[in-house]
Amino acid sequence: MEKIFGILFRGISGKILLGIMGVSVVWTVASFFIPLNIYVEMITVLPGLFYFFKEKIYHEFYQLTKKEITLGVIVSAIILLSGSYYPYILDHFGYYVPTIKWLTEYGLIKGISNLDFILGQMSVWHIFQAGFSNFADPFLRINSILLIVYTLYSIERKSWIHMCFIPVLLLFSQSPSPDLPVIAFSLIILNEMISGNKNTSLLFAFSVFVFVIKPTMIWLPILVFLNSIIILKSSFKKLFFGGLILLLFFIKNIWTFGYPIFPVSIIDLGFSWKPNPEVLKTSSQYAIMKTYDMQYSYEEIQRFSTFDHIKNWFFLKGIKSVINIFFILSLLIFSAFTWMKKKKLITLICISLLIKSILVLAFSAQYRFFIDVFFVIFLVLFYEYFDKRKSLVVFSGLSLFFMSILSFPSFIQKSIPSFRLGSFMAGFKKEQLYQPSTYQYHQFNSFKVGNLNFNVSKNYPYNFDTPLPAISSCYIFDDVKARIFPQLINKNDMKKGFIWKKMTSEEKKEAATVINNRKH
User: Fold this and answer.
1) E-strand spans in 34-185?
2) How far is CA 505 from CA 115, 457, 473, 508, 512, in A?
3) For 262, what's the count of Cα atoms within 13 Å in the CB-facing half-sphere?
4) Number of C-alpha atoms within 13 angstroms, CB side, residue 414?
5) Which of 65, 204, 384, 462 is most buried, by the most CB atoms less than 10 A from its CB?
6) pLDDT band for position 420 (50/70/90)?
7) Would the pLDDT of 483 be above 70?
8) What pLDDT does residue 418 have?
């Protein structure tokens, strides 16, 4: 990547980050045509190892002092331990693992959102994870490796404030959650901009790469774009590489979902495999209810006045209310800080965050969509305050705190019962010291509706280890309610993709059998 596109920034972490982007883009293109199986992994890993030694990249480590290497080893050990706990994020079982299974067995499937709506997202981060899941990382702990790279970046660049973020990110290290890479990558890009990196072409390309991993990160490409035009006075030619990555993102979404941006049904190009309008409507209603933590029905929310919308969002029951209030307060504090500083870059950061916040508040104001804002504001506010000593004190204290939560989850379960994820934490098991903890279920029922044979997890809502093709039970109910059901485009070749069809009377009986089985 460096030979073709130049250097993102000096150091081995810069090479790794550029490599991650390059591999992800290449594998995204490849997955349209082939599964990301062991052969794809081998022809990526083996040349990578070869060039690591041929180009003597390990010499980069010689730039570090013994104290820095010791620090890196200690932090890496903490990260690897945290990554060995059981996954507890629910999306791990209902979205991440099923997506990775599809990618490794089939690649990108046209219209897969018709089979199981959430699979239409197919994040580029899961494409990256899928390619390494055959033998290098079968336990899906790529986030732990990325967190080690983030640590290396902080040490190489002597930007110690990043050490304050690592303990919080330990909570994302057990699953291939896109939240960890987009937070880490955005903080790195932001740090590069603050420290004067003027490589507009790669900074913009990488910011778009972060956006395609998780579109709620739209503020980052907006920021890099505004910075390149207003401050650096760069030509539009330098935005070309980022534009190509963005185009690939739109094509990938159209292929799997039918529209350019998942899960929004804007820019209808009339593709036959786009989801049913009723299913899209149900998804939109669900997103609105999630805004209010499922504490109100969709009908109740529709009756809210403007004042009720704001008041009820601020005063939800439980921890979500505190997070929402803190989010708005953070934006107000940062806006005041921006006004006082009167620096161009800080002003552009503030504008970008406000644009992102307005979009999130308008579509689905869930805390998981704006959690990155807290990290960004903290970085900018305290960039000059945290030196090495202060950062390591914060790192040590927070690491002890979060590792205690992972090891003894009963503490958070009792003290913050409204934090639902805490109830899914399993605590420490001695076996994880030599093998990361994973769940196995492998109980399912098989059904047929029309030309589609499929599997559904038995007495469990998610299909993390159910053989493909698998459908989550909640989407079966949504389809039947809309009087449709997913069907194979070519009954003899699942790789050709899925569409939805109105059910015949015979198919309604078959679907009723599935529903009755799920109810009992």
Assistant:
1) none
2) 20, 25, 21, 5, 11
3) 27
4) 4
5) 204
6) low
7) yes
8) 63
Rounded CA Rg of the chain: 23
Q: 447 has which bridge partners?
A: 454
Model confidence, pTM: 0.93
Cα separation of 420 and 409, whole Å?
A: 11
- Before 263, cis peptide (omega within 30)? yes
Nearest to 435 by CA among 179, 85, 201: 85
Distance CA 428, CA 433 (A): 10
Q: What is the dihedral of CA 160, 164, 170, 171, to 10 degrees?
A: -150
Coil/strand/helix, residue 120: helix
The two three-digit tokens of residue 288, written as one number: 């609105």
Distance, in Å, from the CA atom of 291 to the CA atom of 296, rounded to the nearest integer, reads 10
Q: Which tokens belong to 345? A: 């870059």
Around 438, how many Cα atoms within 13 Å sit in the side-chain half-sphere?
17
**SS3 at position 449:** strand
Give the sign of the dihedral formed by CA 104, CA 107, CA 112, CA 115.
negative
Structure tokens at 258: 């039918």
Chain centre to alpha carbon of residue 464: 17
Q: Which amino acid is at 352?
A: S
Distance CA 113, CA 77 (A): 39
